[in-house]
Every structure is written in structure tokens, then in C-alpha cells.
Amino acid sequence: MSSRLLFFSIAFLYVGYVIGQSTNVVIDDILIIGNKKTKNYIINRELTFAEKDTLPIIELAEAIPQSERNLLNTQLFNYVSINIIDWNTQKNRVVIEIEVREAWYIFPAPIFELADRNFNVWWVEQNRALNRINLGVRLKYRNFSGNADELKTTIQFGYTQKYEVNYLYPYINHGLTLGLEGNLLYAQNRELAFQSLNNKLVFHRNDDEILFQRFRAKVGLKYRPNIFATHIFRIEHHRNSVAASVADQLNAEYFGRGRTNLQFHVLEYEFEYDEHDLRIYPQDGFALKTKIRRQGLLPGDDIHNWVFRAEGDRFFRFSPYFSLGTYAVGQLATDKSQLNYYQYRALGYDNDFVRGYEYYVIDGKAFLLWKNKLKWMIYNRDVDIARWVPLKSMKEMPFRLYVTGGFDTGYVQDPLFADNNPLTNQWLFGQTLGLDMLVYNNFVYTVELSRNHLDEYGVYLHFNVRL
């Protein structure tokens, strides 16, 4: 949308504010342009106003930028602009135009992934071993039918042989509040980490035998009553097995009690409330997320326990260039007698890590983690890459660069294996300086120089980590 049109929209809203905050306007019509595939109702679902609404001018002034953020947070669009294109000042009636530029939805990509927990572990501790690489093909198809649904399939070979399909259909009812999700996964390995020693994973490999197999099936019902809140109810079936040599010779507690099979059912409830300005990389707003997981629903299941997890963050924008983020998470698994090494995970996996400890795993039944990051935006441009990328939806690449500094602390409670893992049952501290790159408002690349309480320094790479 032209800057002239945007100027007049702002001017109209300002005049309305001067006249009086109680002055109401009626939204006569909402026009949507640029959505070649996305259905109009998907866009309208993310708006904080609707056609024929009557609302104070000052509320409309706040609703327009919030609705733009909501649409960007769907990750269906690279660009969103909402403007008033017609205003009958005598009758206080407006026409609103929404212009979107759809993202590229189909991501068929070869898989070239590291089997290790992060790049640094593979590069330093595993000596860049090529047999620890996964190869294959992954298809991620966002907005599969134009209804904001998503299909993901994976065919993978190499270190982990894996086949997976996942499908999400966000709205199945007229009120656009209920959705469905489903997942099937099969994976197998000829190498596995069978224990933790000195807070490092210890691996065993047998090229003549499959050491570990995993099967999972799950379905979920998603309830989204408003823009910010989401409830998900899931039921899962898990069937895992290891070779007899794992339980007999390596670790009898891998599945617990010398078992070679671990089968159980799960009922899980997840709640998330998210008011971030941009969910993939927030600079303002907050989010809360809780998860309650019951493992073992049937008498014949091999484990019966509960897992509780709660996390939240808050971001403060001090200016267009500076912001501060803080994040805290805690997790607890009940019934120590039901725990096994396979599920005995705390810090060092996925995004649950204290910066500076990327080379370590800190296993346990419960943990606390607190992360903080100050961000300074030093570059913000839409880069024209049309000469290199022929896709119209990707010809302009929104690119932001941030200088960051952070401080983390975490604690893991380990009542089982602490004698061999000295980083448990104590507070861990890490500091970091780094660079964050936000690309297409959908991808975050991070490089950081970090230090831990052992006075160890390292340069670490991360992908799509908020803090």
C-alpha cells in the first residue's frame, strides 16, 4: 500500500482522536487483496474487528496494527498492510483494505541434518563424523488447501532411519474454534546414547543390529476460543524397543527393570496464551504455556506417572531498536520408581539449555530454567533478491540483524544418577554475546559467544530460538 494512503489513514484516525475518543465509526466493508490461495475467512479470523462492527475511532486505531501482527504470526504471509481506503466523515462509515503478500508454502527440501543435539557437539566432540548425519527428503506444505492447514512428511536415512507424517486442520466447525491434528512416526537406530557420564552422552554402535526402534501415533483436538488462547487435548500411543544387548550389557535401566520393550499410552492437555508482537521472534508482549501429561492410561502400560511443565516469557520494547526478553520454565516428573533413563531428560535437549553448556546434558526428574536477553536492532531492510530468487512471493526478503547479550541460570534435580554427573543438583550460570538474524519474519539464526560457571568459552550456533 502506498505511503500516501497510509498517511491519510493515520491522519483520519488522528482527527478522530482529537474530535473525541468516544466517536464511533461503522466498518462498511473489508476488502482483501493479494491472497491467491488463502481463504478470506482465514484472514478475517485473525482480525480484532469485523465487517459491520461499530467501534470508537481510538479502538480502530489500536485494532489495525494488532490485526497486522496477528496475520504475520500465522506465518502465512511475508507482508501485511491494513489501511482505510474510504471514509464517509458525515456518516462515520469506513471501508478497510487488507493487502497481503503470501509466503512460499511448499518446502520440499533434502534433509542434511546432524544427529547430535547441536552443531557444536557434532563439530568438536564427534569430530565432524559423517556417519552422524541424516539424509533424506522432507516436505512441508503450509496452507495445504488454503485453510491454514499444514502437511508435513519425512523420509529419512542415515544415522536415524525415520518415516513421519503430520497433518493439522485448524478449523472444523462453523465457529472456527475447533481443529484436528494427527501424527504417525516410525524410527530406528543402530546407535544410541545408553547413559550419561560426567554430563556427556555415552554412545554405543552396532552396524549389524538395530539397537533402538520407536513407533508413535497421536491425535489431538485443538480449541482456539480467541486470537490469543489455544487448548489442545491429545491422546498418544507409544511402542519402543531396544536390542537385548542394551538391557543385558549396557544399561538395565534404559527402559527400567531390564526391559527391552516400553509401551504406554498418554493423555495430554496443553494450554497456551500468546500475545507476542511476532511469535517467531518477539520484541514485545508475553506468553504463558502449561502442559499436563499422564503417561500410562491402561493397566498393562509399562509406566504410570505424571509430567507437569509450565513456562512463560515477557518482552519489553524500550524503543524501535532496543528490547529485553525474559523467559522461565519448570518441569517435574512424578514417581521416581517409574522413571527410566530413556525418559530422564532435563537440560541440554531441544531449546531447554543454559547457554554456555551446549556440550553438556543435565538429566533429572525436575528442572528450572531462567533465560534473559537484551537485543539491539542494528539493521532492518527489505532486501531485493529478485535477481537470484525467481519466486514472486520471496523477491523481497525482510531481514533484521540484532546484537544481543544474555544471562541464563538453571537447576536440575537428579535423585538417581547424580554421582556420575556433577552438574546436577547445583545452580548453573551462563553469559553470552551474540548476533540474531531474522529472515522473512519466519526464520531466526543465532551465533553466540558464551561462558559458563566452569570458565569455559565457546561459540555456538542455534536456529529458531527466541531467547
Give the arrangement of secondary structure elements:
Blueprint: H1 3-19, E1 24-33, H2 40-45, E2 54-56, H3 57-73, E3 77-88, E4 93-102, E5 106-114, H4 119-125, E6 133-142, E7 150-158, E8 160-169, E9 178-189, E10 191-197, E11 200-205, E12 212-223, E13 229-242, H5 244-250, E14 261-274, E15 285-295, E16 305-317, E17 322-333, E18 366-384, E19 396-413, E20 427-439, E21 443-452, E22 457-463
Parallel strand pairs: 1-4
Antiparallel strand pairs: 1-2, 3-4, 5-6, 6-7, 7-8, 8-9, 9-12, 10-11, 12-13, 13-14, 14-15, 15-16, 16-17, 17-18, 18-19, 19-20, 20-21, 21-22
Write a concise synopsis of the structure shown.
This protein has 467 residues and is mainly β.
Task: Provide an overview of this structure.
With 467 residues, the protein is mainly beta. The protein folds into two domains: 3-102, Roll (Ubiquitin-like (UB roll)), CATH 3.10.20.310; 170-463, membrane protein fhac: a member of the omp85/tpsb transporter family (Porin, Beta Barrel). The chain is built from five helices and 22 strands. The protein is globular and about 85 Å long. The two termini are 33 Å apart. Mean pLDDT is 89; it is low at 1-8.
